[in-house]
Amino acid sequence: MLQKHDPVRVSVASGPPTCGFALCFGRVIILSPLLIPGPLPVAAQNAGGKAGTARVTEAVTVNSLPGPPSDNDGATNAPAGIPQLPNLLNDYALRPPWKVAGVDYAVGVPSGTALKDPTTISMPGVSINTNRHIIFVTGSNVTLNGHDFSLHGGWSVYIERGRSDTVIENSNFLVGANNLVPISAESGAGNLTVEYCTIDGGGFGISGNPGAIYALISYNGSGGLTVEYDWLKNAPQHIIEFRNGTLIDQYNLIQNAGYAVGAHVNDVQFNGSVSDGSVIGFNTVFNPQPVNGYPIPGEGIQVEAQLGSTITHTRVENNTIIATGPSLTASYLIVIRQDAGTNVIDGVDIHGNYLDTTGAYGPFYPPTGSNVTFTDNWNMVTGSPFPSPPAASEQRQR
Prior knowledge:
33 strands; globular; mainly beta
């Protein structure tokens, strides 16, 4: 007997030809990608060989397999606005079953937000250096809401040691002539949340050395960093550099990274981190085809224990990562790597990610570390699941 949410292959007794996948909701089979004009009997079989019959009672166009509950995808709390890349997934054999950041809902500064000049900030716990164009957060429990940090050549927000529970929200950043990392938290800073922001690293448009913008968000503190509903784009190198605590990196559109000469590009760089329980989920990662070699191909999502890191109980789940061809736009889309020495990776769950590897070496770099598992990761081009990769040691033995 077929159960609710069983992934199934179906054949229709009559009517137009079907594709290979469907979703069983009790007595209703939703076929993909065709529209059924009326109720038709179907024979169905799930991946375990379990057979059953059902009658299609609704005409639905869905090009996806079962995934997590839709209330986990971030759409409910998405900002007002038009999605940035609404057609990104149109031509795939398979797409994620949830609402995708930047495709099905907007991210970044909510539409209609009236942004304020940072020079007007006047509040306890904040100091402004107008010569250096830096906003210093000198107190805890500070919220910077609705500012245009792209003005006057670009501003940086800098959270000082010992300051915690900083929130930067509904704000716009653009690296300009001042050549400043948009957001930095120094060693000893506490919790930081960056949400509903547009952060543009400037790409090639930076005055001076693009390599100076090593990250859009640099967190050297301890406690936690939460990055949600942000449009993170045109980064010369990394999107996030993270040190200690728990990273929550989700519901973001990460687009166009790799404009510094010799850049090593990835979404997250763990730098000597002691990190437990981090989540990288429901993000959309997309680099366009390069022009004159830029943006430079890099890694889509990386969890690397380096520089004395201990990274435990991490989840990389339900991300949409796209490397179009024909030119290379990424090396590997997901990289889990434990460097030699005292570095430790223990427990990474790579689950439910949807990938286009056309312009990449492959979906997964040979993983190293302990308790690294790969489950239900899908090839959007073929509609087939990716096999779990062998460990690097197994590959060397072949």
